[in-house]
Amino acid sequence: MHGRADSTGYAPPPFRARPPWWGGDLQTLRNTVARAVGFDRFDLPGMTLTLPVSDGSGDRLIGVLNDGRGRERRPLAMLVHGLTGCHESGYMVASARRLIGLGHPVLRLNLRGAGPSAGTCRERYHAGRGRDIADAIRALPEELTRDGIVLVGYSLGANILLNFLAIDAAGLPVRAAATVSAPIDLAASARRILAPRNHFYQRYLLNRMRRDWAGAALSESERLSLREVRTIYAFDDRLVAPRNGFGTAERYYAECSGLRVLGRIGVPTLLIHAADDPWIPVAAYRDYDWTRNERLTPLIVPGGGHVGFHDSLGPPAWHDRRIGDYFAASLRAISSAA
Predict the structure, then answer these.
(1) Range of 216's domain?
(2) Element (H, E) at 47
(3) Looking at 200-325, which runs of residues are DSSP E strands?
(4) Which of 56, 195, 282, 338 is deepest in the core (most CB within 10 A)?
(5) What is the maximum span of the chain, computed from C-alpha positions, in angstroms?
(6) In Å, what is the CA distance from 307 to each residue of 21, 30, 53, 140, 278?
(7) What is the pLDDT of residue 40?
(8) Which of 240, 256, 272 is the last residue in one of the domains?
(9) pTM of the predicted model, to two decimals?
(10) What tens digit of pLDDT does each residue of 126-176 get?
(11) Residue 87 CA to chain centroid, in angstroms?
(12) pLDDT exceeds cutoff 50 at 3
């Protein structure tokens, strides 16, 4: 589903993997390898912003602002990390650098309990907590949002972003959005990560999830569950779902999957996904009738892994170039229609 122009006139070039990162697993693991051996730079200091949420919890999200505006004013780009990520995740830093270079100020948002937000939040983010993005936007100074906002979400953060766009974005100056490797069918993704071939990934993620939840305000039974769970499904079933009013993992997945709200999204949105993603099955993307919402542009390619997309022209990664191109095309279309 790539290569055709959408309503903005955007027609993306194909993805071609960069040696030696062939296949979905190596594409996925390249980000971790890059940090371990120093392939990429991860330092990107910026201004820290504290953004309160509106649910009465007293929780405050922490964002890191990098103001890259040049002579031509461009919308603020807000980046939303994935499961166990934060503003320092490699893909967040890489995307920020790309967008700053294009003239966007960039805010890398830490969701509840992630990175520095762990010290300012009692609660933790989950797949359907799109309202937190709305609260973060409303808490920003007006000078940051007066030129509009574009948003990028990665992995679980991409699913949260889709919920925000469909349910909580009304009245906010959102111009366009993009998602990378979104688990739009949460139940299918939970089943995929349980596969024996994904044992390493599940163990890695589960250990990081335990770390992120260790500082939450948990009951004794929740702390017992935190010690006992051995799968991500069990974590969702015993901790995430009941703590957030869903009861069970199956109900949590059903009510929070981005797939159920795609038809309600009202801003131009690019959805990037790789068929060889080892974590997120491609079937939901292939089976969805994209003609139901002309605002959506699916970009489903054979390779790229999970938030990988390391190609022969990068860095920046292929998805970062596609997102920059898409935002530029969308903003041109908006300007022409005005």
Answers:
(1) 189-256
(2) strand 47-52
(3) 269-274, 296-301
(4) 282
(5) 58
(6) 13, 10, 28, 28, 11
(7) 61
(8) 256
(9) 0.95
(10) 999 999 999 999 999 999 999 999 999 999 999 999 999 999 999 999 999
(11) 11
(12) no
